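User: Design a sequence. Structure:
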């Protein structure tokens, strides 16, 4: 079936190979405002997210990533300076379960 992809956001989690977790950012610390603000999956304009996983790529509709984040995400804070962020950890299996659950959703960012 034909799929029209407008925008793709590409992510890489270099620890995935060892941890089986993918980090999805939801907020980051803005030095200018000295506050946590929405970022990452919460503000993306992309239709799809592509996760680079070592030698392959998993491309998932953004709505499916949001579903996985809300249903399966485990909160974590990334303290790596200078860009502190808050996010969730999900697994590839979480993403695949979201895709199965939302199999009739062909993409988009509705949540």
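Assistant: Done.
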């Amino acid at each position: 079936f034909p799929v029209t992809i407008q925008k793709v956001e590409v992510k890489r989690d270099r620890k995935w190979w060892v941890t089986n977790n993918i980090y999805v950012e939801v907020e980051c610390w803005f030095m200018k405002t000295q506050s946590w603000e929405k970022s990452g999956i919460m503000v993306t304009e992309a239709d799809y997210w592509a996760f680079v996983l070592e030698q392959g790529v998993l491309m998932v509709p953004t709505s499916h990533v949001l579903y996985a984040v809300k249903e399966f995400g485990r909160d974590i804070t990334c303290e790596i300076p200078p860009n502190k962020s808050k996010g969730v950890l999900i697994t590839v299996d979480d993403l695949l379960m979201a895709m199965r659950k939302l199999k009739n959703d062909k993409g988009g960012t509705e949540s």
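The longest helix spans residues 62-72. The chain has a mean pLDDT of 88.
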